[in-house]
Write a structure and sequence with these properties.
The complex is a heterodimer of chains A (439) and B (633). Chain A has a 6-stranded mixed sheet, sandwiched between helices. Chain A is an alpha+beta fold and 439 residues long. In chain A, helix 6 packs antiparallel against helix 8 and helix 8 packs parallel to helix 10. Chain A is built from 17 helices and 8 strands. Chain A is elongated. In chain A, strand 5 and strand 6 form a beta hairpin. In chain B, the strands form 3 sheets. A 4-stranded mixed sheet of chain B has the order 1-4-5-8. Chain B has a 4-stranded antiparallel sheet with strand order 2-3-7-6, with helices on one face. A two-stranded antiparallel sheet of chain B has the order 9-10. Chain B is globular, with a radius of gyration of 26 Å. With 633 residues, chain B is of the alpha+beta class. In chain B, helix 8 packs antiparallel against helix 14 and helix 20 runs parallel beside helix 22. The chains are: A alpha+beta (439), B alpha+beta (633). Chain B: GO terms for molecular function: acyl-CoA dehydrogenase activity; flavin adenine dinucleotide binding. Chain B: Its main location: mitochondrion. Chain B: This is Complex I assembly factor ACAD9, mitochondrial. Chain B: Its cofactor is FAD.
């Protein structure tokens, strides 16, 4: 084992561990061990392909092709497939059905189809079956529905009643049923522009077709006379006519609050929003609008009867929308959650809500989540692609031919066999590097 | 239950019966053409339709609808004198096709109408009008309805436009305005609806503020969908004024004003381009600081709401006769076609499905006519009875009946009916407005049902409370009652039999009505028991309640009319009996079905589902089903 590890480190210029591994498929515990396949072959075709062209689908496909054509017997294909599965996200093909089918095609045909009842009774070629199930599993994780080609490949490879085919059938049964189960789907591709993202998020929170999203300020940078660069964040707000009406009726002697930031998750992205709200009226001060008998010209709006609704017909009156928790008058999203910026929002709101000029506005801003905004999640919210990691940057473009920063690597030899601590989720981009440093 | 009621309301009944019998006797004798009405202070309330909500028909209330009201010989003769020239005019001088195409009634036609006095039909003779009673007005309405545009123009002028002056105006106002309005020299309009206010008086924005010198009001605002708005000289305008209430608090209340175009500051928008009644003028009217003298307030300052309501309530009854007039004409036209057109060597009139359409049209015309003249007759009784409930019933039934029948008439002609070569498409377009204006049918159903519920609720509250407390005796009595009903026990309210007002040949139908009325009483009771005053929010329940009461009133009207026709031997009274019996049987089953639904709770009668469907659609404001061709894999 040690020998193999050494060979990997000294023999390969590709140095696979120098590159952040893709997010592991859930449940796969092997991801932290070096790929056995790579270990055995001492060469990484994906690395080679990526070196030739960029990390694209074509590169990935060429790597798979190279493997399939290179060895007639397809030795080590299970290991190869596991390795390929792990690299898919890296090549941006993790949601490409054709690529999965191509991977399934790597299995030699008909070799694993049980031929008699004994074979059928027992788990025939379990490693291969498990591997194929793993492919399907990863498709499932990415919400990818197999097609007929997948089925044909599975039948050709494993036969009609194999585990992978069962898996395929289950997927075909459940996937369509669950496809539209979410009434509020999030688009897979979130808009890159922070203003568009804010629009989308606000519309999602408000869920009111009347709500109007207003851009109070587009993001821009300005250079002052002293040569300082000042960037102005975007301010996007949403308010519906109902909210405006509520605010207009708000008692000016009671304060309104600007609160936030509150998180909103859109798939893997977290954005923050702020609300303008008031406290609910204390029960004593609620004023019911008195019944005006001279209101409806045609029919009485109320009957003067001393009869209430019968218990049996009360029904289930609880409504999640009708909880007494104080009105929310407006919402906004901004690139910078400080009071000055939010004040700008409030003065923008004031143009359509004159009452805000008379109501005391209190800012109750939490500091905590604002720090998070510097993190990768907020970076994603700002429209930057989530992947580029500042530390990983210098290692990638060179393709790993020349060897940067030697010392940490050597230490790695010693500590590698230790079971590393699970990488913290936010820095999962480069666990091996960190491991090395810690050692 | 009946005994209970008699005990409970004995004193009330006796008092009322004395009063009613007196009036009845008077009513038959004194049947003068309609005199001008003063604003109602103590309207004797007729209770027939309302009493149906209690599930009872007693001698007092049935006396209001049996026998069928009739007019004296002199009146009839007088009326026929009016009718002949009007009919002639409409047949010869009115070119409805041209009116529809040009979207304008020619001046000559309007002059002809004025000469016939049709602009002042209900204006008393002392002010230069014809002084017609409601019955006579309804009769003329049958003819004017032959052209929808003219009918609406006339109705906007006198059924609502000048009605305010007529029922609530002062003597001076009447003398000043009515003569010119009656002659048609001035045209009136009724200006209530605003862009932001249909039935909701609270959202009226037009304001009248007292000028600095306190001599007149300044009127500001705009009104929309004003019939005759483009050329009306006199308008009844409703606006908010500031009124100091009895507690010293200033409040905005509605006030009615007589506004002359000559006051200045009034601008009319372009006439709306409409689907039907295209010849009538409908447009927006804007008021910019229009000075209105103090003496032009109708009724009291702040009393505009009552004025508006009275005008609206009184204008509706004539729609029944208008619809019937139109139906009769349509039957003639289509019968001609169906009897001449041959297919497969058979006339269209020999095909069952075509025959069914004629039966339907005849039946509807008959019912509409019966209801309209019954109601008009009731309204013509002295002491200004409040017939607004009945009038609303007539409006709803006849507008819907007309719509269905016109559509069937068009169907008989097939493709020809769809072309502009024939008048059917115009009738269809014109007729559509009936369901909308003068209070949409939905709103009127609410009015009908809630008025009855209020009336019945007042009387039943005590009993229902007693039941809710768990009064065993009462509950057992109820149970027995229900059981008897379910075992087919019939109810005898005395409509038939030796002293009954219904003719024996209509006995079965009368029994059906009695049965319906009886069941309806217990339905109303259970609805009140279940919903109490929150019934106002149960529109689907109220709709059925209204439909049942509409049907029962219609049954009453045809029974009453057919009985009279047999008794005095009118021509073709056997046909009337046939129509009446057919209608009653048909409606009896419809009523039973609706009442069965009313007895059920929301999930069983589909109401909950209907609401849910609507909610889901409205939440997305779209039809939300996936396309049938969509796939998920």
């Amino acid at each position: 084992m040690v020998h193999q590890v050494l060979r990997r480190f000294h023999g390969s210029a590709a140095r696979p561990e120098s590159r952040p591994p893709p997010p592991p498929p859930p449940g796969d515990l092997r991801e932290r061990k070096p790929d056995r396949w790579v270990v055995a072959r001492g060469d990484d075709p994906f690395e080679r392909a990526a070196r030739r062209d960029a990390k694209t689908k074509a590169a990935f496909a060429s790597a798979v092709d190279a493997f399939a054509e290179g060895d007639k017997r397809r030795r080590g294909h299970v290991e190869f497939i596991y390795a390929a599965l792990r690299r898919m996200a890296e090549f941006g093909v993790e949601r490409d059905l054709a690529v999965y089918n191509r991977l399934l095609d790597v299995f030699p045909k008909e070799a694993f189809v049980p031929r008699n009842y004994v074979q059928r009774m027992f788990n025939h070629y379990p490693r291969q079956q498990e591997c194929a199930v793993q492919i399907l599993e990863q498709m499932e994780t990415h919400g990818l529905l197999p097609n007929v080609e997948t089925k044909v490949l599975l039948v050709q490879t494993f036969g009609e009643k194999s585990h992978p085919l069962r898996k395929y059938q289950r997927m075909m049964y459940w996937f369509p049923k669950f496809k539209h189960v979410n009434p509020f789907p999030v688009p897979r591709q979130l808009p890159q522009d922070p203003v568009d993202l804010a629009r989308l998020s606000l519309a999602r929170i408000a869920n009111d077709l009347d709500a109007k999203v207003t851009v109070y300020q587009m993001p821009y940078t300005d250079v002052t006379e002293t040569g300082e660069e000042i960037s102005f964040p975007h301010i996007v707000g949403s308010q519906s006519p109902d909210q405006r009406e509520l605010l207009a009726r708000h008692d000016p002697s009671r304060p309104v609050f600007v609160e936030g930031p509150f998180p909103l998750w859109l798939r893997t992205t977290c954005v923050y929003y702020y609300v303008l709200r008031a406290d609910p009226l204390p029960p004593g001060e609620k004023v019911e609008e008195p019944y005006d008998p001279e209101r409806s010209l045609y029919y009485p709006l109320q009957l003067s009867l001393d009869l209430d609704r019968d218990m049996g017909d009360l029904g289930d009156d609880f409504s999640v929308d009708d909880v007494d928790e104080g009105p929310v008058f407006a919402m906004c999203m901004t690139g910078r959650g400080d009071q000055a910026t939010l004040n700008q929002w409030i003065s923008g709101l004031q143009e359509t809500n004159a009452v805000l000029g008379r109501v005391p506005t209190l800012f109750r801003l939490d500091a905590g989540p604002r720090e998070l905004q510097g993190g990768p999640a907020a970076a994603a919210a700002q429209g930057e692609p989530p992947h580029p990691h500042p530390e990983a940057e210098p290692w990638v473009p060179g393709g790993g031919e020349e060897e940067p920063a030697g010392p940490p690597r050597q230490e790695a030899d010693v500590t590698l066999e230790e079971e590393p601590p699970p990488p913290p989720p936010q820095s999962s981009e480069r666990p091996p590097g960190r491991r090395v440093n810690n050692g | 239950m009946n005994i209970n009621r008699v005990i409970n309301y004995k004193s009330f009944e006796i008092g009322k019966s004395l009063l009613a019998f007196n009036l009845r006797r008077n009513g038959r004798r004194v049947f003068t053409p309609h005199q001008y009405r003063s604003i109602k202070t103590h309207a004797r309330s007729l209770a027939y339709a309302k009493d149906l909500f209690l599930g009872q028909l007693n001698k007092v209330t049935t006396a209001e609808v049996f026998p069928y009201p009739e007019i004296g010989n002199e009146e009839l003769e007088e009326l026929n004198q009016f009718v002949a020239p009007v009919e002639k005019f409409f047949n010869e001088d009115v070119d409805s096709k041209k009116i529809d195409e040009d979207a304008k009634i020619p001046a000559e036609t309007l002059d002809g109408l004025k000469e016939l006095g049709l602009f002042g039909m209900q204006v008393p003779e002392e002010y230069g009008g014809l002084g017609l009673s409601n019955t006579m007005y309804a009769r003329l309405g049958e003819i004017t309805a032959l052209d929808g545009s003219i009918a609406v123009t006339l109705a906007a002028h006198q059924a609502i436009g000048l009605k305010g002056i007529l029922i609530a105006g002062t003597e001076a106002q009447k003398e000043k305005y009515l003569p010119k309005l009656a002659s048609g020299e001035h045209v009136a309009a009724f200006c209530l609806t605003e862009p932001g206010s249909g039935s909701d008086a609270a959202s009226i924005q037009t304001r009248a503020t007292l000028s600095d010198d306190g001599k007149h009001y300044l009127l500001n605002g705009s009104k929309m969908w004003i019939s005759n708005g483009g050329f009306a000289d006199i308008m009844t305008v409703f606006a908010k004024t500031e009124v100091v209430g009895p507690d010293g608090v200033k409040k905005d209340k509605m006030t009615a004003f007589i506004v002359e175009r000559a006051f200045g500051g009034i601008t009319s928008g372009l006439p709306e381009d409409k689907l039907g009644i295209r010849g009538s003028n409908t447009c927006e009217v804007a008021y910019d600081n229009v000075p209105v003298p103090l003496e032009n307030v109708i009724g009291e300052v702040g009393g505009g709401f009552k004025v508006a309501m009275n005008i609206l309530n009184s204008g509706r009854f004539s729609m029944g006769s208008s619809g019937a007039g139109m139906m009769k004409k349509l039957i003639e036209m289509t019968a001609e076609y169906a009897s001449t057109r041959k297919q497969f060597n058979k006339r269209l009139s020999e095909f069952g499905m075509i025959q069914e359409k004629f039966a339907l049209m005849a039946m509807n015309a008959f019912v509409m006519e019966s209801m309209a003249y019954l109601t008009a007759g009731m309204m013509d009784r002295p002491e200004v009875p409040d017939c607004s409930l009945e009038a609303a019933i007539v409006k709803v039934f006849s507008s819907e009946g007309s719509w269905i029948c016109v559509s069937e008439a068009l169907q008989i002609l097939g493709g020809l009916g769809f072309t502009k070569n024939y008048a059917y498409e115009r009738y269809l377009r014109d007729c559509r407005i009936l369901l909308i204006f003068e209070g949409t049918n939905e709103i009127l159903r609410m009015y009908i049902a809630l008025t009855g519920m209020q009336y019945a609720g007042k009387i039943l509250t005590g009993k229902i409370k007693e039941m809710k407390k768990g009064n065993v005796v009462l509950a057992l009595a109820m149970m027995g009652q229900k059981l008897r009903g379910s075992f087919g026990g019939t109810m005898d309210f005395g409509l038939t039999g030796k002293d009954g007002p219904v003719h024996p040949s209509l006995e079965d139908s009368a029994k059906k009505l009695e049965q319906n009325v009886y069941n309806f009483g217990s339905v109303v009771e259970s609805v009140l028991y279940r919903y109490g005053k929150t019934i106002v929010d149960e529109q689907l329940v109220l709709k059925r309640v209204a439909d049942v009461i509409i049907n029962m009133y219609a049954m009453t009207a045809v029974l009453s009319r057919a009985s009279r026709s047999i008794c005095i031997g009118l021509r073709n009274h056997d046909h009337e009996v046939l129509l009446a019996n057919t209608f009653c049987t048909e409606v009896y089953f419809k009523n039973n079905y609706m009442m069965a639904q009313l007895q059920k709770h929301a999930p069983e009668n589909n109401d909950a589902n209907i609401k849910k469907i609507a909610e889901q659609v409205l939440e997305k404001r779209a039809y939300i089903c996936s396309h049938p061709l969509d796939r998920t894999f």
